[in-house]
């Protein structure tokens, strides 16, 4: 992600300013009301698929909504043409609701009342060696409206997928958000999975025109034609940074037990929910994917990219794939968990024989990442040179370095586990220090770390958190999320807007619906 030049997002009305006392400001699409004669006939034959009246927030705090006033107007029109097609009572529409819908046509809602993260039960989607279903589904027990879109965030290394599903057996139980990730190299597997989701929607009676894919990340452009051709539905591309911020704001404000701090003494200490203080801005988002982007967020839809680095997850994955036998990121993290970096890194204690307390350095602090590799290699070479009776010239002529073949295995004398841990620390420490410098420069106390690089890995979170505390002298705090890798996908999911409105953000007069 390094190298992107992104300006501050368009100024739009604060999502928080639109919040009702009982509802989240984050909205989704539910099923549109059909007015054609053929659809009314099918509705009479299949009551579950019949159009229903959407209630206002004051009338029904439990049901999800879409296009509140416009939906009721269309339903009333269909009702007048066909006579009574449902036994549901007619509901009146407040003038204020109509006015709000006209001003903010994109405000389709998801009901997050009672939302919680599933910790114990198994995910509803079968596991596969081609993808990973994150077990931390988000249950939405009070969202009963239909959701007919899916979202995908396709990065350089991973593709993250988010979709809504009903609870089995009873629609009144609401549903859940499901989270899956695929390796981008296997994008065809991800597309096949989305094709099955689209097919399920069609089998359940959803009109093809109502189904769409919300896509973000670089792959939303790279694979746009491929996804569109394979699925046969509309693919709407969303700005990557806007999606990240929308997703993060949603998690901070709406989902309990999502945001936490981390330290060795107090691992995973959840922050208060709702946020205290309620104003979460400003903050710094450090999104760690293949590269790293650092984004200053001043308010809803008010952000700017203030820095980044090319040394991110892609650096770790690339080097470890050469230096160890690991072939997946999860394998690399498992190796790192077992490793001892002191066999590879040069520590403060190796130099001073003890801690350097005068400047706050423990004996276990890393003075030089991979510093012992060179020293041990030189020692081994000297031993070999002694074995050649000191004929250094001949030794140099005969010696040939073939990095390609040797790098298929870990360097002699160093365990893959130790190498993995050392490199994980090197990348994490670098990111942590750069994040602190940007936060200090811009006066930001709260630093949120997101991206698939973290992956809930204890050593990574501890390293990042310690770096922020150490460099800031405890004045700044690092925050983590349980769905850290899905910020962009969730943000794109939440940005779905009604198809029948020709332009998104029409009040601001920005870009046309693509």
TrEMBL record:
**Disordered: annotated span:** 1-64, 385-413
Q: Which UniProt keywords apply?
A: ATP-binding, Coenzyme A biosynthesis, Nucleotide-binding
A biological process term (GO) from this entry: coenzyme A biosynthetic process
Q: Spans of biased composition, class Basic and acidic residues?
A: 391-409
List where Basic residues composition bias occurs.
20-45
Instruction: List the PANTHER family.
Output: 4'-PHOSPHOPANTETHEINE PHOSPHATASE (PTHR12280:SF20), PANTOTHENATE KINASE (PTHR12280)
Q: What is this protein called?
A: Pantothenate kinase
Specify the species. Answer: Epicoccum nigrum (Soil fungus)
């Amino acid at each position: 992600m390094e190298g992107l030049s992104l300006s501050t997002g368009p100024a739009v009305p604060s999502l928080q300013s639109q919040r009702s006392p009982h509802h989240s400001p984050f909205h989704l699409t539910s099923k549109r009301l059909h007015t054609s004669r053929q659809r009314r006939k099918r509705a009479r034959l299949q009551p579950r698929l019949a159009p229903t009246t959407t209630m206002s927030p004051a009338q029904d705090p439990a049901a999800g909504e879409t296009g509140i006033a416009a939906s009721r107007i269309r339903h009333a029109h269909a009702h007048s043409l066909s006579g009574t097609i449902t036994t549901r009572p007619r509901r009146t529409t407040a003038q204020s609701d109509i006015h709000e819908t006209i001003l903010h046509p994109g405000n389709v809602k998801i009901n997050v009342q009672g939302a919680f993260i599933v910790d114990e039960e198994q995910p509803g989607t079968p596991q596969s060696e081609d993808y990973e279903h994150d077990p931390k589904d988000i249950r939405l027990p009070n969202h009963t409206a239909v959701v007919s879109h899916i979202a995908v965030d396709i990065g350089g290394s991973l593709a993250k997928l988010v979709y809504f599903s009903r609870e089995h057996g009873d629609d009144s139980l609401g549903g859940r958000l499901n989270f899956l990730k695929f390796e981008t190299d296997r994008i065809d597997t991800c597309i096949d999975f989305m094709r099955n989701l689209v097919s399920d929607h069609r089998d359940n009676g959803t009109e093809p025109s109502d189904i769409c894919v919300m896509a973000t990340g670089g792959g939303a452009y790279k694979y746009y034609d491929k996804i569109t051709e394979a699925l046969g539905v509309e693919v709407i591309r969303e700005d990557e940074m806007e999606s990240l911020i929308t997703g993060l704001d949603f998690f901070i404000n709406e989902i309990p037990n999502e945001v936490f701090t981390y330290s060795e003494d107090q691992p995973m200490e959840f922050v208060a929910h709702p946020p205290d203080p309620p104003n979460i801005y400003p903050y710094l988002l450090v999104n760690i994917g293949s590269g790293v982007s650092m984004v200053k967020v001043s308010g809803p839809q008010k952000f700017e990219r203030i820095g980044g680095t090319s040394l991110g997850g892609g650096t770790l994955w690339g080097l470890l794939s050469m230096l160890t036998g690991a072939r997946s990121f999860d394998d690399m993290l498992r190796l790192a968990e077992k490793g001892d970096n002191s066999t590879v890194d040069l520590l403060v204690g190796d130099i001073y024989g003890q801690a350097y307390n005068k400047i706050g350095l423990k004996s276990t602090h890393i003075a030089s990442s991979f510093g012992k590799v060179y020293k041990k290699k030189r020692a081994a070479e000297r031993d070999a040179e002694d074995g050649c009776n000191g004929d250094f010239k001949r030794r140099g002529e005969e010696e040939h370095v073939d990095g390609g073949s040797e790098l298929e295995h870990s360097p002699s004398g160093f365990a893959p586990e130790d190498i993995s841990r050392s490199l994980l620390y090197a990348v994490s420490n670098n990111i942590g220090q750069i994040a602190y410098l940007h936060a200090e420069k811009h006066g930001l106390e709260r630093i949120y770390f997101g991206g698939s690089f973290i992956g809930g890995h204890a050593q990574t979170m501890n390293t990042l958190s310690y770096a922020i505390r150490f460099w800031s002298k405890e004045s700044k705090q690092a925050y983590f999320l349980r769905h850290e890798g899905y910020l962009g996908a969730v943000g794109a999911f939440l940005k779905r807007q009604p198809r029948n409105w020709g332009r998104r953000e029409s009040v601001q007069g920005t870009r046309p619906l693509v």
